[in-house]
Structure formats: C-alpha cells, structure tokens
Amino acid sequence: MVQMLGIGVAGMRDARCRQHRSNTEEGPGPTAMRAALEDEVERNPANAGAWIQLGHLYFDTDQHEKAIQAYEKSLELSPGNTNVITDLGIMYRRSGNPKKAVEMFERVIELDPKQENARFNKGIVLLHDLKDQEGAVAAWEGLLEINPVAMAPNGQSVDELIQQYK
C-alpha cells in the first residue's frame, strides 16, 4: 500500500511515502541515533545512506531545514532516489516553499512516471497551498491513469476526491 498525504479532521496534512524508522526521544538534546548519524556524516561526508537516514530523522522530528539539507546532500552523492526527492518535496512544503515542493514532485514524476505518492502530494500542494484546483485535479487524474483504484490514506478513493473538487 502506498502511503500518501493523509486527510485529517482539520484538512490535509503531510505524511511520508513510507514509514521512516527512527529512534527519537522527546525533549531537548540530540538522541543517540542523531548523534551517531551526525558523527558519521562528519567523518564520512560521502556516505549517501547516512545522509538519507539523517534526513529521515530530521523529517520525523519536524526539523524541516535540516532535513532539506541532509536530503539535498544525499542527492548530490546519489541522484535520482525518488523516495528521497518525494520526502524533500514534503519538507519544502512544510518549510513554507510550496512551489519548490511541486518542483520536487514533478522531478519524481519525470524520473518515475508511476510514482503514485508524488502525484498525490503534488495535487495536495497545488490545491491547498497554491490554490490551483484545476492543477490538483489534473495531478490526481494522472494518478488514476496509473492506478484506477488509488485511495487516500483515509480510505476515500482518489476518484471521489477528484469529483469533490471538479
């Protein structure tokens, strides 16, 4: 099942294209995992995997700018990871840059036209952040072309979502 942006009581909210596994704690101060990853990228700045994991940790702890930096660094080292680019798009949205978020989702779609999460997220950002209802519907129609039974995380079909905004 592809996880996409969730639909909450108060409206749309972000979610990851997959579950990030992180060992985070509440409260101030770095966690052991963050400290280990930060140490690893300092010692071995060419370790794309460590940059990705650090980005995921920052994603999960709502450190948008740090996540963006980590994901960008991982993509410099290992370009083309569509999951990372999708997460980067979500972080751009959360940091208040919806146009850059859409650019990231479009980049993913160009690299992998069947990437459902990027198509769904693009529609969400277009609709809610950029007030482009027509563009959002078009993004979701593109999703239905690849997966005619695509569902939002709340169980609503994307087809129903399209009808709601047409």
Polypeptide structure, described:
With 166 residues, the protein is mainly alpha-helical. 61% of the residues lie in helices and 4% in strands. It has 8 helices and 2 strands; from the N terminus they run E-E-H-H-H-H-H-H-H-H. The chain has a two-stranded antiparallel sheet. Strand 1 and strand 2 form a beta hairpin. Helix 5 runs antiparallel to helix 6. It is elongated and about 50 Å long. The chain starts with 5 loop residues before the first strand and ends with a helix.
Give descriptors for this structure.
166 residues, mainly alpha, two-stranded antiparallel sheet, 8 helices, 4% strand, elongated
Largest sheet: 2 strands, antiparallel
The secondary structure category is mainly alpha
Distance between the termini: 26 Å
Helicity range: 55-70%
The global form is: elongated
How many helix segments?
A: 8
E-strand count: 2
What percentage of the residues does DSSP assign to strands (E)? under 5%
SSE inventory with pairings:
Elements (H helix, E strand, L loop, with lengths): L5 E3 L2 E3 L18 H12 L4 H13 L3 H14 L4 H13 L3 H14 L4 H14 L3 H14 L11 H8 L1
Antiparallel strand pairs: 1-2
Task: Sum this structure up briefly.
It contains eight helices and two strands. The protein has helices spanning 32-43, 48-60, 64-77, 82-94, 98-111, 116-129, 133-146, 158-165, and strands at 6-8, 11-13.
